[in-house]
Write a structure and sequence with these properties.
It is elongated, with a radius of gyration of 20 Å. It is of the alpha+beta class. It contains 3 helices and 16 strands.
């Protein structure tokens, strides 16, 4: 891979938020106009507009979709698939696919983070699987296995197999995965989107150099979280 020379570009709104933002604005307008006509005092109108206006701004912030480019070599590099905070860095036994030990790095996304997800490595998508489940708080350890989640297995050009798991949280009720089995994928491309609070787990081969620490903030498609052997 050649060195990237592109930079972070403008921030736009993600297509997954179009319906939510449209109906949210409609509710805000109709509700405000209704209160203006129902009450002589404008207090209810201002209270409603203030509270739901703030909520609407938070939702707009949630559906931000910055157009980013990783401005460096991508060979053997693993980038953060999401904005958020590192909540797990540990060696685990992965019995579903690998049946051996892996290094797991987990990123928790709060309501105030961008919730678009990026591919963590260049490679080829081996398979995509979706699993129904519970909606425990996303930072709990059991969320990785018991919550609704989508698994994307990627094989790099060097033969490394990387599992990227999108996990729904207590508020999240929809996981969107754009990855398609058999397609090539690249850092800078969107892997998917998770609505309203969630987390992403990355399972890496043992011996991978981990480049992040517990509690560290990450920027999706920008922060290098690991380097493969």
């Amino acid at each position: 891979m050649g060195k990237r020379i592109r930079k972070i570009k403008d921030t736009r709104l993600h297509r997954e938020g179009v319906d939510t933002l449209f109906f949210g604005m409609l509710f805000l307008i109709v509700g405000s106009m209704t209160l203006l006509h129902l009450f002589e005092s404008k207090v209810p109108f201002y209270v409603f507009l203030t509270i739901f206006g703030i909520v609407y701004l938070i939702i707009i912030n949630f559906f931000r979709c910055p157009k980013r480019y990783f401005n460096a070599e991508t060979d053997k590099i693993v980038v953060a698939p999401a904005d958020g905070k590192i909540v797990v860095v540990e060696e685990v036994e992965e019995d579903k696919y690998f049946h051996d030990k892996r290094m797991m790095v987990s990123i928790f996304m709060s309501l105030f983070n961008v919730h678009a997800n990026w591919f963590p490595v260049d490679g080829k998508v081996m398979f995509v699987e979706h699993f129904d489940g519970n909606f425990h708080k996303a930072w709990l350890p059991k969320a990785s296995e018991e919550n609704e989640h989508a698994d994307v297995m990627i094989e790099t050009a060097d033969g490394h197999k990387i599992l990227c798991r999108q996990i729904a949280g207590a508020m999240a009720r929809r996981i969107v995965t754009y990855a398609k089995t058999g397609e090539e994928c690249f850092i800078d491309q969107h892997l998917g989107f998770i609505k309203f609070g969630s987390r992403v787990d990355i399972y890496l081969p043992l011996g991978t150099e981990i480049c992040v620490n517990m509690g560290q903030s990450t920027v999706g498609d920008q922060t290098v979280i690991a380097k493969l052997k």
